[in-house]
Specification:
The complex is a heterodimer.
Chain A: H1 4-16, E1 20-27, E2 30-40, E3 46-52, H2 56-63, E4 66-72, H3 80-83, E5 86-95, H4 101-111, H5 116-120, E6 124-138, E7 142-147
Antiparallel strand pairs in A: 1-2, 1-4, 2-3, 3-6, 4-5, 5-6, 6-7
Chain B: E1 4-6, H1 15-30, E2 38-41, H2 43-53, H3 55-63, H4 73-89, H5 94-108, E3 113-117, E4 135-139, H6 142-154, H7 159-168, E5 179-183, E6 189-194, E7 203-210, H8 214-217, E8 224-229, E9 234-239, E10 245-249, E11 254-258, H9 261-264, H10 271-288, E12 292-299, E13 302-310, H11 323-328, H12 333-360, H13 368-396, H14 398-411, H15 429-446, H16 448-456, H17 459-462, H18 464-477, H19 496-505, H20 517-529, H21 536-579, H22 586-597, E14 618-624, E15 626-629, E16 632-640, E17 654-657, E18 673-676, H23 684-691, E19 696-698, H24 703-706, E20 712-716, E21 721-724
Parallel strand pairs in B: 16-17, 17-18, 18-19
Antiparallel strand pairs in B: 1-2, 2-5, 3-4, 3-5, 6-7, 6-12, 7-8, 8-9, 10-11, 12-13, 14-21, 15-19, 16-20, 20-21
Helix pairs in contact in B: 3-4, 4-6, 4-7, 5-6, 12-13, 12-21, 13-21, 13-22, 14-21, 15-16, 15-18, 15-19, 20-21, 21-22
Classes of the chains: A alpha+beta, B alpha+beta.
């Protein structure tokens, strides 16, 4: 059986190998999926993405901060079915403002340097995801979960 | 892409397309050797089949269900069986089928052929796959030839071939297969020749049998053997054998026939013919520039070369090479038939006698010294039977597998384990025990006062007849408190028999065990109808053997359990005496020594595997194993880590354990589903679950550690998935 640390390491490697995640939000109960470029903290407690404040995803999160991210190592080949892993991150998300923003933004830009101008635009928000649960699927149907205990994320308005 | 190549079309650079066997045949044919006409179905054809049918990823999914190294051999056999069935059932794509049909019809019309593997991995310097991939001899007609080509492809994924590739570190994902289809030359004598002996470089070896070569290659017919001096071209030695049978071409396939006494009295080759065979081998050696291992046949005075490969210095016995062991995983029908005779007529009766003899001795009456002697004696008896169990009983289980393969080859069913339905008409001892339990529970259900006396423990006074029936059950099967059948009072306080009877009686109706029974007749008729009239008897014999094998899979544990119980009882009596103190002295010391110096194994000291770590941070949600019994069930998990956990088993619980053994299956009628760490479709838990029609998933790594008693669990026996928890995030 995997140890706690072994499992976390597997998740870190999966996240480190990917740039994009599928973000799930909803609007009045209607699910909505979109693509975001993400970064993550080493303790796995937080993930970050940047979005213009005019987007549907940002508006949805302002109405209900509960969300999920899907990150997968699939390569759009047949072999994905036995080789690829996918993790669903369930949690809540909200815009980072104030003194902690700069450090988080630098962390984000270090991972996505080509997005620096985009990320620093005054019309964009840096969003922090408070991860509650990681649900990892591998070997086609084998599913394990990591539950994190940390401070609650933003409350739904 | 060339799907089929003939000898003149194959060049030296074609190894990856045609494999070593076809490459060497083509080279010999081009050099003028007399070779029976052949074509090679290239790896391109194999790959086209995989790509068109989606089988490539389907195979890899099957093999990546879990880490290959974690799989038991039985699980690998299961994988191989499922993969083989996929090959048998997937139709050939139209273009490929047409190309093969035309090539086969053009070369062979209705003449018989031999179909052999020629995988590029084979016969490489480091490896010898001889015998690991399939060959089919005497196949006639385009349809049958195409079908057999698929079976040779499938043999790339046989359990033995998978294990051997794993051992050699070959990437199974890249494995591919070409096939040689060669006209069958039915010679009067056949054999092999090592142009240079692997053990003595100045010598060559010739071996020969009457009839077809397959008898020699498979080891079914013992050959005459000659040693030849390479330097002086002369015979050094002849090792004759008793010649009484030969392998001959039947209407379809091969058959073993007796040799007329007069033919058997003389060797299959004359001295001139022996030297001609040696010269053929030597010529091949000169052609390839290395000593050769050739197969040949002699028809009407003409010598044909059937195949040639380099002599490898590897022998099955060489260090680290497990090929011989992988090959031994499959036993022939004749071998199994002999094993059955021995088990049924000698070993089982002797085991029953041994158990009865042990049960007649009143241990309490023995002196300390006599008890010490008795403990040692019982330990020896138990050891003897444990050894027999491994040496003979376990290999006999191959009868089920042999039958399964023949069934699947003939009927190509949707479910590769459909054949198990034919085997359930056997009366397994553990089912007999469960039927008796059901009958006792029925009485309790009808007469509530029996439940009261069971709980109060005073049935002896209030329902003496019922009490006697319970005692007679205990006499046969024990009180269910022991890890072995027939034992009593191992877990004194748990009263499992009482609890199980109360649990059983509290539900309205017993499940109908053996739900497959109705199907068995129909399946068995279909199986027998698949044989031509002339071979029907063969089908019946195989079915009968498989049923015996299936039944023994269960009964042997029950019989062995009674002997173990006899040992356990003597050990328990010895420990009781030491614990209660009493008279010290020489005899007591002897008793103490007997108990201390013998290793009684795990079953007398069960170790509980650890429960899941309680941090709660990492939790299983969905675990995968093998689908071993179809159906879907939900319930609370009851994780059985030691025998005592069985006593609390409740109606509707999901049985989660390391390995179901026949001594614990009395709870199965109460269970909603079975989940097992140990993998395999033919392991005991899977067999019993099928008997009761319960969903069953086996081969779930760490099942008893990851799942906790009380967890809500869903068991999907169709897909082999166990889901833990309610789904809330």
């Amino acid at each position: 059986m995997e140890s706690d640390e072994g499992f976390r390491q597997l998740l870190r490697e999966l996240l480190a190998g990917q740039k994009l995640a599928v973000l799930s939000t909803h609007h009045g109960g209607q699910p909505y999926a979109s693509l975001v470029a993400f970064a993550f903290s080493d303790d796995l407690a937080s993930l970050y993405f940047v979005t213009p404040r005019t987007t549907r995803k940002f508006s949805n999160l302002q109405n209900d901060c509960r969300m999920a991210l899907l990150i997968t190592s699939s390569t759009n080949k047949e072999t994905d079915f036995h080789e690829a892993m996918a993790v669903t991150v369930v949690g809540s998300a909200g815009e980072i403002q104030g003194p902690e923003k700069e450090a988080a933004l630098n962390h984000y830009i270090a991972r996505h340097p080509y997005l620096e101008d985009f990320a620093r635009s005054p019309t964009c928000a840096l969003v922090r995801v408070y991860a509650h649960t990681y649900i990892l699927v591998k070997n086609f149907q084998h599913v394990m979960e990591l539950h994190l205990d940390h401070e609650p994320g933003p409350l739904s308005s | 892409m060339n799907l089929v190549l003939s000898a003149p079309e194959i060049g030296a650079s074609d190894l990856s397309r045609v494999g070593g066997k076809a490459l060497s045949l083509a080279a010999l044919s081009q050099a003028g050797f007399r070779i029976p006409v052949f074509i090679c179905v290239t790896t391109g054809a194999y790959n086209a089949f995989l790509d068109a049918t989606g089988l490539r990823e389907r195979i890899l999914l099957e093999l990546h269900r879990k880490d290959f190294k974690q799989m038991r051999w039985e699980e690998i056999w299961d994988c191989a069986t499922r993969i083989r069935n996929l090959f048998l059932r997937k139709p050939l794509p139209h273009v490929l089928a047409n190309a093969l049909r035309n090539a086969v019809a053009e070369r062979f019309a209705n003449r018989p052929v031999a179909i052999r593997s020629s995988a590029p991995d084979e016969d490489a310097a480091r490896s010898s796959f001889a015998g690991l991939h399939a060959s089919y001899i005497n196949v006639r007609g385009t349809k049958a030839i195409l079908e057999n080509i698929r079976m040779v492809w499938a043999s790339l994924w046989s359990d033995a071939a998978l294990l051997y590739r794993q051992e050699l570190g070959l990437d199974v994902g890249r494995s591919t297969m070409a096939v040689v289809v060669q006209e069958l030359v039915v010679g009067e004598a056949s054999g092999i020749c090592f142009s240079q002996s692997p053990t003595e470089s100045s010598q060559a070896l010739v071996e020969s049998v009457y009839g077809l070569n397959q008898g020699l290659v498979d080891g079914d017919v013992e050959p005459d053997r000659w040693v030849i001096d390479r330097d002086f071209n002369r015979l050094l030695k002849h090792v004759p054998v008793q010649r009484n049978r030969q392998l001959a071409a039947a209407e379809d396939g091969l058959k073993m026939v007796s040799l007329p006494a007069e033919t058997g009295s003389r060797p299959p080759l004359t001295p001139e013919q022996i030297m001609a065979v040696y010269k053929l081998g030597f010529k091949a050696e000169r052609h390839f520039g290395a000593p050769q291992d050739v197969e040949w046949t002699l028809r009407d005075g003409e010598l044909y070369l059937l195949q040639s490969r380099p002599v490898t210095t590897r022998t099955p016995a060489s260090e680290g090479d497990q090929r011989a062991w992988y090959l031994s995983l499959h036993r022939s029908f004749d071998n199994l038939r002999e094993l059955r005779r021995k088990i049924e007529s000698e070993q089982i009766p002797a085991m029953i006698r041994a158990a009865e003899e042990l049960s007649k001795i009143d241990l309490v009456q023995l002196s300390d010294r006599e008890l010490a002697v008795e403990i040692r004696r019982r330990w020896e008896i138990n050891n003897t039977w444990v050894n027999v169990y491994w040496a003979d009983f376990i290999p006999f289980a191959h009868g089920i597998r042999l039958f399964g393969q023949v069934y699947n080859d003939r009927l190509k069913p949707d479910d590769p384990y459909e054949f198990v339905g034919l085997l359930t008409q056997t009366d397994m001892a553990s089912l007999e025990r469960n039927r008796l339990l059901e009958a006792l529970a029925d009485q309790v259900r009808l007469r509530p006062e029996l439940a009261d006396c069971l709980e109060a423990g005073d049935c002896g006074n209030k329902a003496p007849e019922f009490r006697r029936e319970i005692e007679s059950f205990i006499e046969r099967f024990g009180d269910l408190s022991c890890t072995v059948t027939g034992g009593t009072q191992c877990e004194g306080a748990t009263r499992p028999l009482v609890k199980i009877l109360l649990a059983m009686s509290s539900r309205p109706q017993a499940p109908s065990g053996s739900r497959n029974r109705m199907d068995a007749g129909r399946l068995s008729q279909r199986f027998l109808d698949s044989f031509p009239e002339s071979r029907r008897e063969e089908g019946l014999e195989l079915l009968d053997l498989a049923r015996a094998s299936y039944q023994l899979r269960d009964d042997d544990n029950i019989h062995l359990g009674r002997i173990e119980a006899g040992l356990a009882a003597a050990v328990a009596e010895g420990r009781r005496r030491l614990d209660t103190g009493g008279k010290a002295g020489e005899e007591r010391e002897e008793l103490k020594a007997a108990l201390e110096n013998l290793d009684f194994g795990d079953r007398m000291h069960p170790n509980r595997p650890p429960a899941r770590a309680e941090s709660g941070r990492i939790r299983p949600r969905q675990l995968t194993g093998q689908p071993a019994g179809p159906g879907l069930a939900m319930g609370r998990a009851r994780v059985v880590r030691s025998h005592a956990d069985l006593a609390d088993f409740a109606q509707g619980d999901i049985l989660v354990c390391d390995a179901v053994d026949p001594n614990m299956t009395f709870v199965v009628p109460l269970a909603a589903a079975v989940v097992e760490r140990r993998g395999g479709m033919l392991i005991h838990g899977a067999i019993i679950a099928r008997e009761y029609g319960l969903p069953c998933v086996t081969g779930v790594p760490d099942a008893t550690v990851l799942i906790q008693s009380g967890d809500p669990v869903t068991v999907d026996g169709y897909l082999g998935i166990v889901t833990i928890g309610s789904g809330e995030i």
